[in-house]
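Memo to structure team: turn this sequence into C-alpha cells by end of day. - J.P.
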Amino acid sequence: MRSKDLLVSSSISAIAVIAACAQPAVDQSTDRQELLEDIFVQIPNNLPIRNASGLAASFHSAGVIDLRSNYFTPQGTNGRECGTCHAPEDGWSITPQTVTLMFLLTGGTHPIFVNNLDTDTPTSDMSTVAARWHSTTMLRQGKFSRHVSPPAVRDYQITDVSDPFGVSTPASLWFFRRPLPTANLRSFTVMWDGANTVGTVLRDGAIKQARGNVTGAQQGTPAPDDIIFDIVDYEIAVSHAQLIGTGVGRLDSDGARGGPEAANAQPLVDARFDLYDAWEHSGNPRRRQIWRGQELFNNVNPPSGHTCRGCHSAANNGQNVSGAMFDVGTSRPELARPDMAVFTFQRTSDGAIVQSTDPGRGIRTGKFADLNRFKVPSLRGLAARAPYFHNGLAPTIEAVVQRYEATLGFVFTPQEEADLVAFLKAL
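Reply from structure team:
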C-alpha cells in the first residue's frame, strides 16, 4: 500500500466525488481497487482536503498533483517513495494518525515500517504484528530516526548520553525528528539541521537531499540525474496552504490572498505578511480576527521586544530569507519526554555545558554555538501537519504559541493568543 492507496483509504470524500465526476462511465463489475487506482492518479489543483481547521489544498504549476510522477514512484528496493513520508493529505509531511492508519491497514508491513530503518532501535523485533507495534512507537508519533556521528573537527565533547532505547553513544547519537514538508520550498536551507544545504541555492540542496533519500531511506542504488532532477523540480513546484477556514469561508475571497495558488506565486522576499489586509474591516468577525492575528505576527510584541517575523521573515511563507537557524528552546532537557534521549555537550575552551534532546545544526558543524539551532520552516499549511517543531513537542497550534511564550518571553492576552492562532490556522 503506497501513499496513493492510503489517500483512497483515508476517506477523503471530496476527492472521490470530484474525481469520480470527471471519469467516464465504467462497468459496475469493474474491480473496485482498479477503479480507485484509475481515479486517484492525480489530485486537481485547489482540491479541498479536510483537516481540523477546515480544508486545505495543494497547487502545482503543472496543473495537477500527479501521483504517477517519479516523486510518487519507488526508486529503491524497499517500496518507499518520497510520498511515503511526505503525503499531500498531511500538508506534505506526515501525521501520527496517518502512520498509525498505515500500520492498522497492513499489520505493520507498509514500506514506511520496512527493514528497521526508523524503528525504535536498529535491531527492533519486527517478526510479528505485535512485535512490530511495540517496535514502532516513535514512527507512530510521526518521527523518524537520525543516527549521526559528531564531526571529527569540533569545539566540544559529548560527555554523557542518556538514551531510553540504549542505542546512542558519545560517538554515535540516535534521536528522532518530524519530517519537514516538501511543499512551499523557498529558503536554501535543507533539512532541520541544514545537513543537505549546498551554498545558497535551494535546488542544489534539494538535489543532494533527494540523492541521499534514494540511497538511504529507499535503499536503492544511485538514481540517474534525470530522475533526481525530475523529483526535485516536482517538489519545488508544489505549494500547500489552507483554502477554507471553518466559519470563515474561502481564504482567497473578498480581497484576501490565502490558499495555495497565491502561495505558489509568492517570491522569497523579506517583508510582512499581507495576505489578509483586505479583511481589516470585514463584516465577518472571524475574518477580522485573522487580520488581527496577522498584525500580531508582523509587529513587535511589546512585553518581550520580539516579533514572530524576527525568525519567520519570508513574506507570506514564514521561512527565513537568509537561511538563518535558531534555538527556540524545544531541545531543552527539561522538556524531554520519557522516550527522548538527552545528550550533554561540553565546550573544550571553557568547560561550558549544554544539554539537548537533539543538537540540531551543531551536530553537523561541530560548533558549540550551533547546538540546538534548527531551520525555520514554512508556516503555510500548518493546520494539516500537527504535531509541531522538529520533535513534535507541540500537539496543536495553540501549544506552539504557548511554547514561544514560555521559552522566548512572548506575552499575549487570551484574546491575542486566540487571534494569533486563528491567523496561523488560516495559513
